[in-house]
Amino acid sequence: MPVTISVIKADVGGLVGHTNMHPDLIDAAGEFLDAAVEAGTLHDHTVMAVGDDLELILTHGHGEESPDIHRLAWDCFVQCAEVADKLGLYGVGQDLREKTFAGNVTGLGPGSAEIELEDRASEPLLVFMADKTDAGCWNLPLFKMFGDPFNTPGLVIDPKMNKGYSYEVLDLHLDRVADIRLPEELYDLLALIGSVEHYGIRRVRRNTDNAVAACTSASKVFQLKGKSVGKDDPVMIVRAQSGYPSVGELTEPFAHPHMVAGWMRGSHWGPLMPVPFHQTGMNRFDGPPKVVCAGFQVTAGKLHGPVDIFDDPAFDGARREAIEIADYLRKMGPFEPHRFSEGGMEYTSMPHVLQKLEGRFRPASNPVAVEAK
Predict the structure, then answer these.
(1) Residues spanned by CATH 3.30.70 within the chain?
(2) Please, what CATH class does the domain formed by 1-118 belong to?
């Protein structure tokens, strides 16, 4: 029987600015989803938090992009926002840009990643959740997981994997995608996904049978009420083992923190730090960007887990390296390349600052002075 894994996230209110999640919101979401399990809408659920983002991990039989499941998640977020409002939390309902639900959370503020799958005899999968960054943060890890034999030796030695994988690449600014097949189109893929602010990987499929191996919350950048939505604080689901990379091959890309866009006010580059569940607070310059990895075994729609994958001293080196990178960047203050370049600032509040200063600019050359020479 097909089972769908849906990971849907939203920022509905932060505890102490944008830094942490109030436990009452997690409890409220859990109670709301418990009722959905009892009613038969869901098979199972897990509620988590990364920074100030509420993460709903759901299993059900409704397929991908089900209006019923997206409505359920939306109503859950709305109820949690009401709790946040009573608690006086910061940024209440921040990702609930619209007052009414329109059939799908895409473009309304929340982000979602979903995979419909037939249970294998054993179905291990990893859910990656990040805060203070955007959809492009998955480009490098996904390339390493499914395209780089130095990271994933299974691409060389596992006959179930050495036919390679194909990437569905999304243009984050235009409503279009391209399917690029590895290994033969390796350089074409890198030409696109190296531009992490322009292109994001939406899905990865196995070439042998077109089965989905990974799915992310990458979506076209929507503009609502003068602000961009649908691109921040992404999530990702990745299947593991038996024809897919092993758990260790999927986590290895995070052993060295790579640079991602986001951090303070969504306007700065910073290192993506892998952390355990209990260290997701965004307490230094509202960051640095952090990622957690929740491991599950899925059996008949039931979630066994989560296992805190990054709660391991083997990732201490990555955390130390991330701190060193953060120290270096913070010394640059408002200067590039710590702060975004002008193109990246188009999706922040910077245009409002430039509009205010527009009348202050005057021609730099003086025609009269030039004639006098």
Answers:
(1) 1-118
(2) alpha beta
